[in-house]
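Exercise 7.
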Amino acid sequence: MNNNIQAGVCTLVFTLIASGCSESKNNTSDNQSDNRIKVETMTVQAAAVEQINTFTATVEAEVSNNISPQSAMRISDIFVEVGDRVTQGQKLAEMDAVNLKQAQLQLENNELEFRRVDELYKIGGTSRSNWDARKLEYDLASESYNNLLENTILRSPISGIVMKRNYDKGDMYSTDKPLYVVEQIRPVKIVVNVSEALFPQVQKGMEVDVRLDVFGDENFKGTVSLVHPSIDATSRTFPVEIKISNADERIRPGMFARVTFTQGTEQRVLVPDLAVQKQSGSADKYVYTIVEGKAHYQRIETGRRIGDAFEVISGLQPGEVVVTAGHSRLNTGTEVEIIHANSNL
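Solution. The predicted structure, written as tokens, is:
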């Protein structure tokens, strides 16, 4: 083989080897790219977020009166029905008056006897002890009559609405349940158990927002009327009483209420809801962040939902990159390829 042929063979061999090496390197690069998980991401930022806390409770009447006679007796007449508005002092029902009539006769007799003794005493015709005895009998008879009168003619002690009537005309009243329940619902009140963390912030007179499930998203304004001074050691809450004027009486006792306290704004990281994952078997939430092309598991504590994002209480800093799509195959350390990146919500 001459020198020219030998040189040509060597050149061909070198070219083939170089080509093979280049192809091998390209294949390796392609394989590495194929092994990376394709994800979409978003860079999270902080924003001013209104700090609110919502607690649930049941609406109560401002005053609720159970109205009944002191002892068992027959009901002679009924004057108002459930749902009727009544005024203070209005007659509600009348009980059997036999005992009242007897007491009235006894009172009239004692009054007559006392007046006779009083006239004699004024002219020295009887002793002080006799006068005292007749006066005591008269006073006791008067007190007994007034007590029977109050329990025979039942009147409303407040202005309000008749919420219950448990007996009918002619029934024998027994002491197991009241004849009437009358409630004052202007205003109404709501007592909520508030987390102890808010104890320094909740003050008498502050306004709160109230929503009632029956009225959907309609908002009612309430005012803190009472803050209990101690915290329950078991529940770590303290009772707060809210008043709503309820001038139109639309709000009724028993309605389910949601009371929202607002404590200004704070800078919070907002993370898209697509990025937030829930830990199986627990209430923990987490996201995957991307650092130097690799996924990292990051547990977070979320606050309230705001549109299509969550407020982050802890676990993320502004500027971090979170995965919004492609979570299913990720683990800490997994190499990723970002195919779409958003800069903000």
